[in-house]
Amino acid sequence: MIDIYQSVTDTIIAELERGAAPWVKPWRTDSSADCNLISGKPYQGINRLLLGVSSMAHGFHSGTWASYKQWSERGYQVQAGQKGTHIVFFKPMASRVNDDGETESGYCVIRGYTVFNACQTDAPISDAESDAAPFDADAACEETIVRTGAMISHGKDAAFYMPSQDRIQLPDRSAFNSPASYYATAFHELSHWTGAKHRLDRDLSGRYGNPAYAFEELVAEISAAYLCADHRISGELRHAGYIESWLKACRDDKKAIFKAAALAQKATTFINECYSTEAIAA
Fold first, then answer.
1. For residues 237 and 219, what is the distance between their CA atoms, to the nearest angstrom?
2. Distances in Å between the alpha carbon of 78 and those of 39, 69, 89, 118, 145?
3. pLDDT 10s digits, 27-63
4. C-alpha span between 246 and 256 (Å, rounded)
5. Statement: the pTM of the whole predicted model exceeds 0.70
6. How far apart are CA 228 and CA 268, in angstroms?
7. What are the residue boundaries of the structural domains of the chain, listed by start?
8. What is the DSSP letter of 75?
């Protein structure tokens, strides 16, 4: 029986070992979020990560995915010789009897299944998907940042989130090579900001160089990449030095990347759904 956790982890490890973080640049920015053909709902968490990896590897420019059966039911055919992308599904179960004979309730069973991108089928791809839509990145990203209500200070040659003051520090906008670089950095620090106890309550106590710190950086990097994709700007890896730490985390715990991706998705959703008007930009 295939160990799905291990299979997914091995995919991520392979990308890290060749020097790439699969959730960051080059991130596909010429289509909307990856969605299922039938439900129209965007994929979340680890599936979003896996589909991003697959799109990067194969150059897919559509964000529409479906199983072989789903494409067939819509009257489309998967092209001969195409290989699908393996993703996962967590099915809630009412109860089960564990090895100790006790009944457990409220648990999930993980299942693997295969989907194909629209580019692998004879389905027509709309102009909106095949061509990058023009957008004002400054306006879209600024609106998201302001809505969070995060206290942000600009100046100095440093970017960080300070939990003791619940404040984000960023260099001046003019210090960045491009607006995309500025917003990618801002999204990274905002992702740390979501981890405060009165928000998503992640462990932010780790110090530089230790596993807890590296794991939180992994969460923030993935979340920032998700936010960059949502805003259709190019994400970029800010902490290349953590790749070895991330590799170690993945090798030591086959569920580590699942945990990081799930926490990153929560952070991303939190930021995207913020509607505060109390942001302070100093």
1. 12
2. 19, 10, 22, 8, 41
3. 344 445 789 999 999 898 889 888 877 876 777 878 8
4. 9
5. no
6. 10
7. 30-131, 132-282
8. T
